[in-house]
Automatic annotation (TrEMBL):
Keywords: DNA-binding, Phosphoprotein. GO terms for molecular function: DNA binding. It comes from the Bacteria. This is Two component transcriptional regulator, LuxR family. Pfam families: GerE (PF00196), Response_reg (PF00072). PROSITE patterns: HTH_LUXR_1 (PS00622), HTH_LUXR_2 (PS50043), RESPONSE_REGULATORY (PS50110). It comes from Amycolatopsis arida. Transmembrane segments: none annotated. The modification 4-aspartylphosphate is found at D83. Residues 32-147 form the Response regulatory domain.
Length: 238
């Protein structure tokens, strides 16, 4: 059976057939979309809703590999909607790749409300994070907001973003960690040494040690395991 991502789903809708209130795109022409998800029925449902909103062309892919092939063949579409839990790779990495390749808008539609996944998606360049369990109204609102140039977070994950990268230290006082400090802590959690972390982030081992010392002062502990535990509890790392 031919791979879904290698066939194009095209839904052309006359511009005058839809009420103006249902066409969220700020321009007059129809918009193009890439939908990436490994569940065919969900892709069909998303494509149908996008067609109702004014999508002219909907490309589909079921895997990271198919998404890359489709993106390479079509060039940047107006919008990409993708799942994070793809069978052959990282959805977060795909977000980064699409954004660096000139894709202007990326919406994540995920099954998880994990704080780390939510923050990682936005840090990678996504403009919206929606849950698959969300109502059609929420999904439509999120897509519309992004097409109009804004950002959107599912109401149930919005509090995660409000906390930023704050971690409660040993005295229970929240401390703000920098993006680099979060990266270092994540690699510590992955079991990497200072030297290995330095190689991963193109830093010297001494600089990594300085980051860890600064993290320790913020969190009130110099113990690597305790720093990791505090960050995990706050949902800053996984």
């Amino acid at each position: 059976m031919a791979a879904v991502g290698l066939s194009q789903a095209v839904r052309s809708t006359p511009a005058g057939a839809l009420p103006a209130s249902m066409v969220p795109h700020p321009r007059e022409e129809l918009f193009s979309v890439l939908v990436v998800d490994d569940h065919p029925l969900l892709r069909e449902a998303i494509a149908a809703r996008l067609a109702q909103m004014g999508a002219g062309t909907v490309h589909e892919a079921a895997t990271v590999a198919e998404a890359r092939a489709r993106a390479s063949a079509t060039g940047p579409c107006d919008l990409a909607i993708l799942d994070l839990g793809l069978p052959d790779g990282s959805g977060i990495e795909l977000v980064t790749e699409l954004r660096s390749s000139g894709w202007p808008r990326v919406v994540v539609l995920a099954s998880s409300d994990d704080p780390y996944a939510v923050r990682s998606a936005f840090q990678a360049g996504a403009q919206a994070y929606l849950l698959k369990s969300a109502s059609p109204v929420v999904v439509t609102d999120g897509v519309r907001r992004v097409l109009e140039g804004g950002v959107y977070a599912d109401p149930s994950v919005a509090p995660v973003l409000a906390t930023g990268t704050r971690v409660a230290g040993t005295d229970n006082t929240p401390r703000e960690l920098s993006a680099r400090e979060v990266e270092v802590l994540q690699l510590v959690a992955d079991g990497q040494s200072n030297k290995e972390i330095g190689e991963e982030l193109s830093l010297s081992a001494l600089t990594v040690k300085s980051h860890l010392s600064r993290i320790g002062r913020k969190l009130g502990t110099g113990d690597r395991a305790q720093m990791v535990a505090l960050a995990m509890r706050a949902g800053v790392i996984r």
